[in-house]
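Troubleshooting: if your tokenizer reports a length mismatch, compare your output against this known-good record of 521 residues.
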Amino acid sequence: MPTAPQPIALPVTAVTCLEDRAHVERAVVLDLEAGVQRLRLGPVSALAVDRTLHAELTADHLATVLDVRIVRSWTPRGPQPSADDDSALRHRVHTLEEERLALAQRRDRLHARLDLLGRLAADVLREIGEGAGSGESERPRWARELDRVDHERDLHGERLRTVEARLAALAVELGEARRAMDLSEEEPAELVGHIELTVKAAVAGPVELRLSHLTPCALWRPAYRAVLDGDSLTLETDAMVWQRTGEDWSDVRLTLSTARSASATDPPRLGEDRLTLKDRSAAERRTVDVELREEEIGTLGPAAPVLGLPGVDDGGEARVLRSPVPVSVPGDGRAHRVPLSAFTTAARSEYACAPALSPLVTQVVRFDNLSGHALLAGPVDLVRGSGFSGRGTLDFTAPGAPAELAFGSCDDHRVVRQAEESRDTAGITHRTVVTRTVRLHLSRFSAPGEHGERMVALRERIPVSEVSAVEIRLREDSCSPAPDAVDAEGIARWDVTLPPGSRRTVTLVYELSASARVTGL
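Known-good structure output:
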């Protein structure tokens, strides 16, 4: 059974890019002959996973796939054309080769000149012999001619020795440069894969072949671009795609998925976990040990830190995004931005500050996700009226859910936080009372001619007790002014209005009361 000598092109038509690999689909129309035949298709990426190779024909009742496999071979890389951005070593080799060629041509000319001078000297000596035999005597002329020929021969001989010495030095230098270039820039042989397809056709005719396989060295991550224009926000969703599979993806249907095909699907094994009870000692019954700790407020729990490139946060459910138009992704291993979607919606801006965490006043923009798909966690390029203002992070947002972005700090605001603490003990109950006073000084430095008030949302935290032995009370009579709202997490909020060039001071006072049994405060 012969194999077709020339391989049939098998282009990539569709790619499903996963979190750390890609599912590649190819399609081609084959002109089959009746009977069993073996076809050679490709070239394809040598990184294709053999066990995921799948081929099917559209006309199953007329043709059947008997066998399909990948055959790999080492192919030397073809010579690359010289370019201006070649390395200095390659330019040095080129310069030495040109100099060697010029010196070789000059050496050949010197050899020809010396041969001519040798024949001229022989002619002069023959003329002297013939003249002396016939009785002629022209000793001054003969001496002058011989001296001129000898001088020319010595001069050109010295030039020839100089050229040959330079050629020898050039040969050594060129050999070293070529060895260095071979070690540093020589392209090794390329591993190329081809598909060997064995089919059986009942009748001759065209049949469409569809072939798919998995390949590593391809991944994608979400990226966004947010443009704030007054009260409207435009959010563009893009995909950063990297691939170095050994072939380019040209005008393919690109699908992006968060499915993790490499992750194990078996549930973890359950281990034995024993719980034991023991009686408290008398000292433990008499005291209650407490401690102050800080916890991050979150609805889904804090994400674990990841070293290197983080994975795609899809909210625990596989998400699929598609490019609206065919795209091309070169196999150079660089990041390529693929547009996916864009929408414009109304935005609600707020100037917020949490002095306990940062002394900066930040512009926070809140909006609803109207993209029609989930917004995966990823970096966001922030653009305002003045241009690019920085880069932020967008958390996972379900379709239609609210989201928020921080567009950077306001340089014309300054916040100073001062905290004081006093401790007292009641005489009869021996309760410990800790009074804490927090003063927040907020200033706005405005340019001349600036008008309009600005609302700044100040947030300060109040401890929340988890045990009945410790009580926390907000002293609203001592607060100036009283907080506009205090949520269940103990976050107090003030909406402070600042005219241009104004200053405001906010005072928060709360008491932390504990019985005599409490230790650790």
